């Protein structure tokens, strides 16, 4: 297999690993856009990590409205909000692999939802969202503030802030936020909860905060893992060229912001 440059840990190619780990690589490719990636190839050094990673990560990142017998199992928060929180976390931690890859994932998500101008604006200002409050909804601002504090020091999250976040989440879930705070997508997303009673709404908010907090903390883990192991972006010498996709699809001002923040490091 073709392989680009690497530094501290060499990504293992699919022909170098056992069949179970190779199947995990393919599972990751199929689930995550058909793209062979160095996340899985570095995890290949610990096969059980690679084998369990995709289903585990999908459960709180990519799964949408997962229900069994009427019981919701995952997807309590919508994908656009999750991508904003993932990128805010990764920008705060200055983790190259997460910053570049989720700039691509997040931008294409908004683009495919016909919300490209909104997505561009929100992704561009994420690294200092607190200076651009008007770009984000009240709920997004609260979630992004929460993400920064969880990254920096979770002891900073006060009871007042936690309760305010719960209130904003429940307002959104009940389709009771101000009209300018909700898109047509948002209204469709919350329609499944229209018949919930007060107890169900309280339980839903708890599930959302647990999912959100796990998402942030997982990316704090991944950010540190990518950085200390210096996991490289897939480039022109690899079997799949992520950097070509990144340069072609992510707007130049977002890419420039990323480089200014990362300063050439991992």
Structure in words:
The structure is a single chain. With 266 residues, the chain is an all-alpha fold. The chain folds into 2 domains: 12-60, no CATH class; 64-238 and 249-262, Up-down Bundle (AhpD-like). The chain contains 12 helices and 2 strands, in the order αααββααααααααα. It has helices at residues 19-31, 38-43, 47-60, 79-93, 96-112, 116-124, 138-152, 159-173, 184-190, 198-229, 242-249, 252-262; strands at residues 66-68, 71-74. It has a two-stranded antiparallel ribbon with strand order 1-2. The chain is globular. It starts with 18 loop residues before the first helix and ends with a helix. The model has no long low-confidence stretch (mean pLDDT 97).
């Amino acid at each position: 297999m073709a392989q680009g440059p690497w530094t501290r840990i060499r990504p293992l190619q699919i022909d170098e690993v056992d069949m179970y780990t190779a199947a995990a690589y393919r599972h990751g490719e199929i689930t995550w856009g058909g793209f062979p990636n160095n996340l899985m190839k570095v995890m290949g050094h610990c096969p059980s990590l690679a084998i369990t990673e995709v289903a585990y990560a999908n459960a709180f990142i990519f799964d949408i409205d997962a229900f069994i017998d009427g019981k919701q199992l995952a997807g309590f928060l919508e994908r656009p909000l999750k991508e904003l929180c993932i990128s805010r976390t990764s920008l705060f931690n200055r983790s190259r692999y997460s910053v570049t890859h989720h700039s691509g994932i997040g931008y294409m998500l908004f683009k495919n939802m016909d919300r490209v101008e909104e997505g561009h604006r929100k992704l561009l200002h994420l690294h200092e969202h607190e200076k651009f409050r008007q770009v984000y909804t009240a709920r997004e601002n609260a979630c992004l503030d929460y993400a920064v504090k969880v990254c920096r020091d979770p002891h900073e999250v006060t009871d007042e802030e936690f309760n305010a976040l719960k209130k904003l989440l429940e307002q959104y879930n009940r389709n009771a936020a101000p009209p300018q705070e909700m898109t047509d997508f948002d209204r469709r997303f919350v329609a499944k909860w229209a018949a919930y009673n007060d107890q169900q709404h309280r339980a839903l908010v708890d599930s959302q905060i647990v999912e959100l907090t796990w998402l942030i903390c997982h990316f704090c883990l991944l950010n540190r893992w990518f950085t200390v192991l210096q996991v490289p972006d897939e480039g022109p010498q690899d079997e799949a060229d992520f950097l070509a996709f990144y340069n072609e699809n992510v707007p130049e001002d977002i890419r420039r912001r990323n480089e200014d923040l990362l300063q050439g490091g991992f």
